[in-house]
Design goal:
mainly beta; Jelly Rolls; Immunoglobulin-like
Length: 259
């Protein structure tokens, strides 16, 4: 059995896979939409669009994920706060659903996987109930190609140990979970948080040869505030925060080294 470790808040817990399971991830962004911005006190009915519509035909035999990073405040809501959700082909209730509490700015990154079928579908983000909302300018919405369904590298057993990178340009560990990376199969995983970089666009650390993506990747993340941020991983393995808050900058991301 191969073992993947995951956590939500507490200690890392093993997630078991059979020896025949295979994976691959992150060939890059293939379609881009946009979330609403600067809608001051706008009232939205349940089922209202809060993003542009992406029309996209995934290639049969390839896997994808739709991602939305949304910074918003619910000014007035119904019972239980404001819920948002992914919608495909204008059919409600599919995939991820996330909640905003009334009166608080919140940054949420949500994603959902799907397999291409060669047919064009529409993808968007909608409200799941009525609310008055304000959306920040740092929200975004896109679809990534995450590799073939078959032919990926098998999960090794045991899984490799995590490695601490050499931080530079003023970036240091935030504490709690230290910044680390490892490669399992052909997938490189990043985790942890950093802070105090000297400037946006500076290199926080460099991954060793063999851990580099086939193209420069742009990764959305959460930072202090809470606020949305993003960083790049280029074809030389250089990991560079590009925007957000230097008080706390999360590095949770994974990508494939296979072209």
């Amino acid at each position: 059995m191969g073992v993947l470790y995951a956590r939500v808040g507490g200690a890392w817990q093993p997630v078991n896979f059979s020896a025949s399971d295979r994976w691959n991830n992150a060939w890059g962004v293939v379609a881009v939409g946009a979330m609403l911005e600067a809608q001051s006190g706008t009232a939205f009915a349940a089922g209202a669009n809060i993003s542009t519509v992406i029309t996209f035909a995934g290639v049969a035999g390839r896997r994808y994920r739709v991602r939305a990073a949304v910074r918003a405040i619910a000014l007035t809501t119904g019972t239980g706060g404001m819920w948002i959700r992914f919608v495909i082909d204008n059919t409600a209730g599919l995939w991820d659903m996330h909640q905003y509490s009334s009166g608080q700015w919140q940054s949420i990154v949500m994603e959902a996987p799907f397999v291409g079928d060669g047919v064009a579908h529409t993808y968007q983000v909608q409200t799941a109930q009525a609310a008055t909302m304000h959306f920040g300018p740092t929200s975004f919405f896109y679809i990534e190609d995450v590799g073939p369904v078959a032919g990926a590298v098998a999960i090794p057993n045991p899984t490799p140990a995590w490695i601490a990178p050499t931080l530079q340009n003023g970036w240091v560990s935030y504490g709690l979970q230290a910044p680390q990376y490892r490669m399992v199969g052909d997938i490189v995983y990043l985790r942890g948080a950093i802070k105090n970089g000297s400037a946006w666009g500076t290199i926080a650390f460099t991954l060793p040869a063999g851990y580099w993506p086939p193209a420069t990747l742009y990764a959305s993340t959460l930072s202090a505030g809470p606020s949305l941020g993003y960083f790049t991983v280029n074809t030389l393995g250089q990991v560079s925060p590009q925007g957000g808050s230097t008080a706390q900058f999360e590095l949770a991301y994974n990508f494939s080294v296979t072209p």
